[in-house]
DNA sequence: TCATATTTGGTGCATATACACCTATTTCAC
DNA sequence: GTGAAATAGGTGTATATGCACCAAATATGA
């Protein structure tokens, strides 16, 4: 009576490993968006980080890590090249432990410059996967974060 | 007449970036599978690599990189800890350029040991996402690789 | 008040990822 | 047969990722 759906049997095969399939898709997608953004000098991950800081505004490092669902120490290191390029800056507040991450005018400028390149890549992915399929995949990825994420 | 589907408008927002959503889902999922496999000492990526070599048998490094949809140089480095632990070994053939990657008895043993831990993690993901949703997401991820992958 | 727990962030280490560039071997055209 | 092209793989460099552990500042409670 179990497994009346043949797909459910397949799911216990390593070929259907969520991790392996995500990792593989992530590799090709990162290369694709990185290539699209190459004229701007930004990596896709950096573009995402800058866009989030621009949209959400100044916030503490740990809060930003929560928003990105990224380890705090990973974020610390990902910030370095962006600070070095003066796209992001670090501010202080009364609580001397806190580092406030904010985007500079130069940071906003490069996000604006990169946006058309990002949109072109995004449009190509939508066209390739199909406009009707894409929203469902994004929803699935977000659900996965909610389900599996330790938050 | 364009964009009769409201979802299609959303897709051009950076919040629906395929790269950012994949990367975020990959982060939480890697942590989840890594934690599940921790008793075995294997990382999820290493488990995947070993399982593929076991299933597909001995093959040249570049061929393995194609199968994994992974850059050749990434694979070279990912192999190192597995070779050091004697789970994988490198063989030679007539063409002296070729390195043949094969799994050792110890490699097969640790894959077998890790399999129940992997399955537990996989089952939890299936349960969390829903058995009816999971196959579709895997199909989407594979389609993304086909569409976006430079192969 | 002051010792302790919590919060905030960083470092050391190891793996994961890939581009640009390199070497060695083999194949192929002539 | 030999020189160029193609193939197989590695190195240098940079980013991306997170765990274990650490330091400093703040909050808490007796």
Structure description:
Two copies of one chain form a homodimer. With 151 residues, chain A is mainly alpha-helical. Chain A has a single domain, classed as Winged helix-like DNA-binding domain superfamily/Winged helix DNA-binding domain (Arc Repressor Mutant, subunit A, Orthogonal Bundle), CATH 1.10.10. A three-stranded antiparallel beta sheet of chain A has the order 1-3-2. In chain A, helix 2 packs across helix 6 and helix 3 crosses helix 6. The longest helix of chain A has 25 residues. Chains A and B meet through helix 1, helix 2, helix 3, helix 6 and helix 7 of A and helix 1, helix 2, helix 3, helix 6 and helix 7 of B. The first copy, chain A, binds a DNA duplex (30 and 30 nucleotides) through helix 2 and helix 5.
Q: What key phrases describe this protein's structure?
A:
3 strands, 151 residues, DNA-binding, Arc Repressor Mutant, subunit A, 7 helices, mainly alpha, three-stranded antiparallel β-sheet, homodimer
Write the layout of secondary structure elements.
2 copies of one chain form a homodimer.
Chain A: H1 6-10, H2 18-37, H3 44-56, E1 59-60, H4 61-68, H5 72-84, E2 88-92, E3 99-103, H6 105-129, H7 134-148
Antiparallel strand pairs in A: 1-3, 2-3
Helix pairs in contact in A: 2-6, 3-6
Chain A binds a DNA duplex (30 and 30 nucleotides) through residues 23, 27, 30-31, 34, 43, 45-46, 60-62, 70-74, 76-78, 80-81, 95-99.
